[in-house]
Specification:
This protein has helices at 16-29, 44-54, 80-86, 96-101, 106-118, 131-135, 139-151, 180-197, 200-206, 220-224, 241-252; strands at residues 4-9, 36-41, 60-63, 90-93, 122-127, 162-166, 207-212, 231-234. It has a single domain, classed as TIM Barrel (Alpha-Beta Barrel). The protein contains eleven helices and eight strands. Strands 1-2-3-4-5-6-7-8 form an eight-stranded parallel barrel, surrounded by six helices. The chain binds phosphoenolpyruvate. The site of phosphoenolpyruvate has 13 residues, from strand 8.
């Protein structure tokens, strides 16, 4: 059975010393369990030191982005091969902040997903509608389109895994998550797109659909109670070790 997963996205918020301090505390209080995987996604600069701190701990490492080529003349970019070498298992791709501030297109996202899979990384593909798109009644269409473009023509090899993170852009960092029932509906829509593309068994065994957007320890159980919600991507509530650990413990109580 697939485990549920909780992923901390630290964005550009924790500097190196703060990341080190977080991990030092977190490894003391975090108790791994059979139902759940925990992932930390620090900045690129902190990956190497966090990787060393997580050695032999049952906590996974993820990056917040990667480039779509393995190596070459791409000044300032970070290779998925390099991420793998540093010990990353996961990589966030197409976060709405990158789509809006760095103008990442669906094509860029698609190429990054392919590059990550080539390295055996698990891509966390972020999709979600803006408030305006929602007001136009286009939410499901926008999400279906983003997922389709990200996975078009893609095949998953035996060892490959994929995560789709549904993150309504307008609730990220707002302190107000969408209703869990609504997230569940959108997750069903996403699952259908995935089933139409991959074999149903592949989706069941190797693809997880997770929710992100103002998740915290007070609402995580409500999301995890739904069948199609396989985990959470957490921003603000992942920045303090006790808060993040409490969130994971709450989630672990849901059957
Ligand atoms: C995010 O940016 O991926 C996110 C989910 O942020 P927050 O939890 O702060 O809404």
């Amino acid at each position: 059975m697939k485990k549920k997963i909780i992923i901390a996205n630290w964005k550009m918020k924790l500097m190196s010393a703060e990341s080190a301090g977080f991990v030092e505390e977190f490894v003391k209080i975090y108790k791994s369990n059979k139902k759940m995987e925990a992932v930390l996604c620090p900045t690129f600069i902190s990956l190497q030191s966090v990787a060393a701190q997580l050695k032999d701990k049952e906590i996974f490492l993820g990056a917040q982005d990667c480039f779509w080529e393995e190596d070459g003349a791409f000044t300032g970019e970070v290779s998925p091969k390099n991420l793998k070498e540093l010990g990353c298992r996961f990589v966030i791709i197409g976060h709405s902040e990158r789509r809006s501030h760095l103008l990442e297109t669906d094509e860029v996202v698609h190429n990054k997903v392919k590059a990550a899979l080539r390295q055996g990384l698990v891509p966390i593909i972020c999709v979600g509608e803006t408030f305006e798109e929602r007001q136009e009644g286009a939410k499901d269409f926008v999400v279906m389109n983003q997922v389709t473009k990200a996975i078009e023509g893609l095949e998953l090899d035996a060892e490959d895994q994929l995560i789709v993170a549904y993150e309504p852009v307008w609730v990220i960092g707002s302190g107000q998550a969408v209703a869990p029932e609504e997230a569940e509906h959108t997750h069903q829509v996403i699952r259908q797109v995935l089933i139409d593309h991959f074999e149903p068994a592949t989706v069941k065994e190797r693809v997880r659909i997770i929710y992100g957007g103002s998740v915290d320890s007070s609402n995580i159980k409500d999301f995890f109670a739904f069948q199609n919600i396989d985990g959470a991507l957490v921003g603000g509530a992942s920045l303090e070790p006790e808060t993040f650990n409490n969130l994971i413990q709450q989630a672990s109580q849901v059957n």
